[in-house]
Amino acid sequence: MQAGKLGTRIGGGHAGVQQPHLLKQPAGGRPASSRPRLNSRRGAVVVRAADYYSLLGVSRNADKKQIKQAYRQAARKYHPDVNRDPGAEDKFKEIGQAYEALSDDNKRAIYDRYGEAGLKGGMGGMGGMGGMGGMGADFSNPFDLFESFFGGGMGGMGGMGGMGSRTRNRATTGEDDRYDLQLDFLEAVFGCAKEIDVDRLASCSTCSGSGAKAGTSASSCPQCGGAGQVVSAVRTPLGMFQQVATCPRCEGTGQIFTPCDTCGGDGRVRESKRISLKVPAGVDSGSRLRVRAEGNAGKRGGEPGDLYVYITVKDHPELRRDGISIHSDVEISYVDAILGTQVKVTTVDGPVELKIPSGTQPGTTLLMAKRGVPRLGNSASRGDHQVHVRVRIPKSISSDERKLVEQLKEMQSKAKFGPFSF
């Protein structure tokens, strides 16, 4: 077992531990039974150490073979990949600590005399124990201990093949990336093909994404012993407390290496890539397109993230869009409104002749069916084009026009009241 490894894996073994987890150790004497107690002033859970012999289900006179056999059975029973009961993972961690202490003659002798505090440095200041002050917190990670028994995972356990081992230095999926794309009005309506240049993180070709300098390899972090976490002990009136945090040297990976000169150890470098993008018909401002696996590269062989393309659409000088409907305005004279006419209307399909019927009122909306926007995901279905008619009333007219209008007015009056009106 390597000194400095931690037997408690906080948060399921992931490297990103943010909040410290406090574990109480008894000030001395034999271990007591496990009983959680809440310290309301500190907001932490205080846990009395469990008896190691009871955890493994062996007597205090058990030999190494019995202890080893008991550990194998208990570890299989409480491994969190197998046992989903609440508290199973904590029990698994305690079993690993118990086995590591009782399987080593020196540690077992210290434990039998002073309890868990003696193993974790709590007895360093006692007279006659001058050499024990440096023995603090040398428990291994319980999952590493388990893997040393079962060959790196759950594959060797009957009925549990295929359940992968847990590792701190696991592959990490790359971050998603964003690209903002502006389209012309008609490009958004009918779709288009675009070539876009994306600046993203790609796997470093020099180190093949490992982050390590060519010709070198990673080694176990000397500060945390490969656990990815460091522990500091604090003596309080309540006893010894341990504070667990992410190792600052290896950043929780449990490994250190000489960084690659190209990527600086990240395993990724920033580069630009040209991507062919097919924009479907019917997109609009606010639409988002997803391009799989074209985001930032993952770390340590992880899958790349996705690229999200956010669409904005330029305005059209004559046309307005509302979902799959197109709107536009046409202005006619009051004479054309009375007599009717034919006008040329700009549509997404190009100029189209539209018949204005006689007697059209101001504000009338005329419908041009199937001249709108294709429905997104179903381009065979299209919206309509709505033409809003404005009637232009002149502010001033010529004398001849006035005479004609007055004659028209007189004719309307006769038609309204008849020949016998007074």
UniProtKB/TrEMBL annotation:
InterPro entries: DnaJ (IPR012724), DnaJ_C (IPR002939), DnaJ_domain (IPR001623), DnaJ_domain_CS (IPR018253), HSP40/DnaJ_pept-bd (IPR008971), HSP_DnaJ_Cys-rich_dom (IPR001305), HSP_DnaJ_Cys-rich_dom_sf (IPR036410), J_dom_sf (IPR036869). Residues 1-41 are annotated as: Disordered. A zinc finger (CR-type) spans 191-272. Keywords: Metal-binding, Repeat, Zinc, Zinc-finger. SMART domains: DnaJ (SM00271). Pfam families: DnaJ, DnaJ_C, DnaJ_CXXCXGXG. Residues 191-272 form the CR-type domain. The keyword Repeat applies. The keyword Zinc applies. Residues 51-115 form the J domain. PANTHER family: CHAPERONE PROTEIN DNAJ A6, CHLOROPLASTIC, DNAJ HOMOLOG 1, MITOCHONDRIAL-RELATED. This is Chloroplast DnaJ-like protein 1. It comes from Dunaliella salina.
